[in-house]
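To fix ideas, we reproduce below a protein record of this kind.
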Amino acid sequence: VNAAMENGKSYLLKSGSSYLSAETDKTSADYGKLVYGSLNTSDLNEVVAGTWKVSTKTTSGAVVYTFVNKVTGMTLAVDPTLAKTATNGLSGDVTLGSGTVSEWAFDASNHMYSYFKSDSIVFFDNTGALNKGKIADLSAALAVTEDVISTPIPISADDLNTLMWSVDSKDNYFALNMDPEVSKGLQAVSAGSGYVQLKAKDKKADDKQLYVVVDTAYYEGTETSGQLLKYTYDVLNADNRLTGSYKFKFTYNVKEDKLY
């Protein structure tokens, strides 16, 4: 069950039409809290809040999973003393990284749980609240499956400038590994129709801002195939350059955690 989750890959955790995600607003008192609810899988801001990098290991013949949230960097680790029961009156709210119980297992029906004692487990109920009880209570646990978004998500200028929403400010610079080069100090500017232009920090000519542009020269050894044009920097709308050579379109693969 959930064997499709691979070590080192990233997934959304889904139950029915709802997802386990994190509150990622750093200005909120609820930052880092576990959120259970709907998620727009075409909105990168929401997707990364609900994306978990998986680590797996085998313990006593069973596979257990550890989940780290992409945006907050916090582990889905809980404190059993904060889990609710039918009688203790606790809310079962979870702040990521707040406890030592972090290795999760799934039964044959995908009920998600973790042992904190040899005879006691914690689990999430159908409201997303943390509960504790015995293994016999597992039927009340949330049934969770991995969700892989098969369609690459289009990336906007804001997505890039917030470093995939890991920071709140939209005025940041980033680096892109554009094999065989690395371009640093870039800032995206919306160019319409899903395209962005890449402004190069600290690169100017005659006090004019330079942008990344696809050159007309090829990398050595690819001239015949015509597959690898070089990148360079130039002012916008420079003579003898096509307008489209300044425009780039990116997509994000959730499982691989890569831009394309």
User: Anything to note?
Assistant: Residues 44-49 form the longest helix (6 residues). The two ends are 31 Å apart (CA to CA). The chain has a mean pLDDT of 89.
